[in-house]
């Protein structure tokens, strides 16, 4: 399966369809695409937010957002890029698409923002599947947590160079 990232315009986010998730998975991934688009539009520093479609064999398989600079959340290190709203359609889960997408994101970061040394994210303490997925990708839990939209979230981090090693 050929997995790639396709950067999209902010206005396109609300029109994305075909990513099938359970209601709980969608909540953990930041809500509906319309809700994500609305929050992004309301951000004062949205120019530092970069949305991507995850494509598998030329079909939409998922979505992710990278944030840098002024758009970084308070819990992220200044030399990091943060990963948000990561989702893989249910029919594509368990096929390596997510792992490859994370590696492709790391490669994109290394190309476009070489000064960024790590990729960071937060994962809800009740989202066991996502936590296990990120650990398999190479992320490590930090000792920090914060209160997110749905409760306590653990902060995870991985060096961009380590994530790129997973990329072909």
UniProtKB/TrEMBL annotation:
InterPro entries reported for this sequence: Acyl_CoA_acyltransferase, GNAT_dom
Pfam families the UniProt entry points to: Acetyltransf_1 (PF00583)
Domain N-acetyltransferase: 3-168
Protein name: Ribosomal protein S18 acetylase RimI-like enzyme
Species assigned in the record: Aquamicrobium terrae
